[in-house]
Every structure is written in structure tokens, then in C-alpha cells.
Amino acid sequence: MDRTAHVTDRPAQRAIAYDPGAEAQSPHFRAERVLAGNWTGTSTVPSRGLYPHQWSWDSGFIAIGLRHVSPLRAQIELETLLAAQWGDGRIPHIVFNASVPLDAYFPSPDFWRSSTAGRAAGAPRTVQTSGIVQPPVHALAAWLVHCADPGLSRARGFLAGVYPRLAAWHRYLLHRRDLGGAGLASVVHPWEQGMDNSPCWDAPLARITPAPARSFRRADLDHGAPEDRPTDLDYGRYVRLATDYRERGYADGVSDFAVEDPAFNALLIASEHALARIARELGATGTARHARAERLTGVLIERLWDRAAGMFFCRDLRNGELIPERSVSGLIPLLLPTLPRNITAALVRTLDGPHFGARLVPSYDLLGEAFDPHRYWRGPAWFNTNWLVERGLRVRGDTERADVLRDAMLDTADTSGFAEYVDPHTGEACGATGFSWTAALTLDLLQAKGANGAKGGDRG
């Protein structure tokens, strides 16, 4: 079956076909318009200027929102990403658009050299990608997309097509990336965890000799204020780590940077539960996957839970120690349905307490020395992490807190122009505006609020 068929048909145009009357003044319409403007025909860029390619976890969140506008487009979003999967199972964090100039984004395809440096790992030959990964939200997204229109999904063979690729992706993470030997997946670059510039990485990054500033040119500063972006020193360390990984042929192992992260693993566990549901839909049993997810929840607690802090911390595999920095990553395990009640209660107390108690959940500790309300992942609130916390509160049955957070997100997303991230106290826009996952997750929250009123409800 041609899975890209009809990509310029109704779903691609639906968001711009509204009558520009009262409906055009609604947040729903404005969010749809963002996604229509960022749609390329087979996928959605995070933003036209700053991020002109397809990003892995962005596409997962985008598909979750797109399912309310066009389930077909949401399916194609994920299929396009998965078509770039490597032979070893990894889903690269960037799939490059060959029509975009090389200097529009750095690191560009000629930096990653995926088709040559990644040959031994099975990098695709027909498309250029990065060599690192991002958090595994994809199976959860695929299940939610299927639930939006099961008839269309079954007619296209959507789940049957994506399931083997998602299963291979999870095998890669659970085996090739189990660098600590306890069962959790590890990240080997800050970009892989998604919260690129978090203070959680400061101590591990201090070991890294930065690449010379003259050896690369940052394209991000063409689109964002320097005070909102990572420093040149940190960026030099990111480049060094990526270069070293490329020179090893993207072979995995404990290197200068290897970290077990709670959000990355919580999303892996949540997606294992989703894969179990997908397996059942396809006529198989999901029992083993549910059991694995429950076992990994126990390992997550054993390895990363800090009772005194009331949250999860990252573990640095180079020295075996927890990194005592409070990040929103340590709250995202609220998503997990079998997390013990005493731990979820402690997480909620931490969420309400002085370290995170703002209008929107900050990306980093409000009381931390490194807190900055505007600098990339060092304090601002992001809509995808807030969406994950909101969803976690609903999993816990805490609808009152979830409703308050949802309403704050909806108000801030629209008034900020669907910003990439915002000041957690004031909602002031930072980074790019017209950001795709902000618009997509706005649609998801609006759908839930409209369908279930103030109670919010289950979103699949």
C-alpha cells in the first residue's frame, strides 16, 4: 500500500479551509493554521525558520494533536518518520529534507554523514538523518492516532505497518542502550533526552573538551536571542560528543556522556504499555509487554528515585551517581499506571512545592542556582512536558490539578502565539512562535475539554 497517497488531499488542506468568520478567531482554528503552515506534504516541521526538518519526538506529539484534525495526516506523520529507521532499530532524531539548504540548520546532513558513518548500524541510503535518537513517545502516539479513527487505521493497515518498526525501536533501546546493565535505556548525548540544555547535564558535560568554536557555525542564533539559547561553550561540547559518536560509527557503549534519565525511560515504559495494546489490536497477546513495563517501572524506582527529594533524578553512568538536579524530567514518571501510590503522592507534593510551583511547570528547579526563566531548558515551561505532567495527573485520577494545569496551558499557548517555550510565571513567549507541538497539544487539550467539559477525561 502507498502510505503517502492523498497527502495533498482533504487532510492537508482542512486547516486552511475554514470560513474566516467567528471560527477563525478561535484557538482551535489558530492552532490548526499553525499545523497547516508547517506541514510539508509528508510531515510537519517544528517551525519553518529555526527547525526546517522533521524531528523525532516532535512528530510524536504533533501526531497526537493532528489526530483530531486529520487522522490520515497523523498516520502519515509517523509513517514518514519510521521510514527513516536504521537497521539496528534506532529512530534518528532528525530526518533531513533534501530540499532545505545545508546552511539552514546545524548540525546539517554533511556533519552527521549517516549514509557512510552509519553504514554498519544500518542507516538508510535513501534519506539523510542524524545518528542520535530522542525520547520514545512514538508507540503511545501511534496508539492514540489509531483510536482517533480505528476504521481508517484498519483500512490502511496502519498499526500492522508501524508495529514491527516500533518493536524494533524498543528492542534497540532495551538492549543496545542498556549501558548500565540494569534494564533502563541510556542517552549518550544531551540532545537525545530532548531537554538539550538542562542543568542536569552540566556535571557530565564538564568532562567534555569542547569542539573549537571555529569548527562550526550555529544556525540557531539566526532565529533566537543568544540569551535564550545554549552558550557557545555548551554548544561546543554538544558538537564534540556528536563528532566522537560519529567517528565510532555510531556504535553504542559507555562513553564520556552516558546517563539514565527518568523522562526518557518513563516514556519508554508508557510506550511499552501502548505496544501491548497495539499487539492485542493485531490479534496477539500483550501480556509480556505489560509485564516488561511493570518490571521496568520497578527498575526505574530502584535506580532513579530519590525519596528525600521526592522526585526522580538522572544517573551518571560514568561515576554511577545520581545527579542531584531537580528537572521536570523527574516528574514525568507520573504517567506510569503502576507507579506506587506513595511515590505519586510525593511527586505531586514536589509539583506543588517551592521548586516547581509556578503557573506552568518549569523545566528546572525554581530555586536552583542555574534557574533562568528564559534560557533554553534551564527554567522556561515547555508545552510537551506540561502536557505529559497533565496526563500523569489524570492517570493518577487527580482531575482538579489536571484541569488547572490544562487551562493554564490553553490560555498561555494561544496568547503566546503558540510559542516554543515560555516564562513559567508570566507566560512571556520565548524561542520560536507558531511552534508545531504547542499547537498540536493545544488541539488535544481543547478536544478533551470540549468532549468532557470541566472533567477533562481519558484521552485514549
TrEMBL record:
The keyword Hydrolase applies. PANTHER family: MANNOSYL-OLIGOSACCHARIDE GLUCOSIDASE (PTHR10412). Residues 51-438 form the Mannosylglycerate hydrolase MGH1-like glycoside hydrolase domain. Keywords: Glycosidase, Hydrolase. GO terms for biological process: oligosaccharide metabolic process; protein N-linked glycosylation. This is Mannosylglycerate hydrolase MGH1-like glycoside hydrolase domain-containing protein. Belongs to the glycosyl hydrolase 63 family. It comes from Streptomyces spinoverrucosus. InterPro entries: 6-hairpin_glycosidase_sf (IPR008928), 6hp_glycosidase-like_sf (IPR012341), Glycoside_hydrolase_63 (IPR004888), MGH1-like_GH (IPR054491). GO terms for molecular function: Glc3Man9GlcNAc2 oligosaccharide glucosidase activity. It holds the Pfam family MGH1-like_GH.
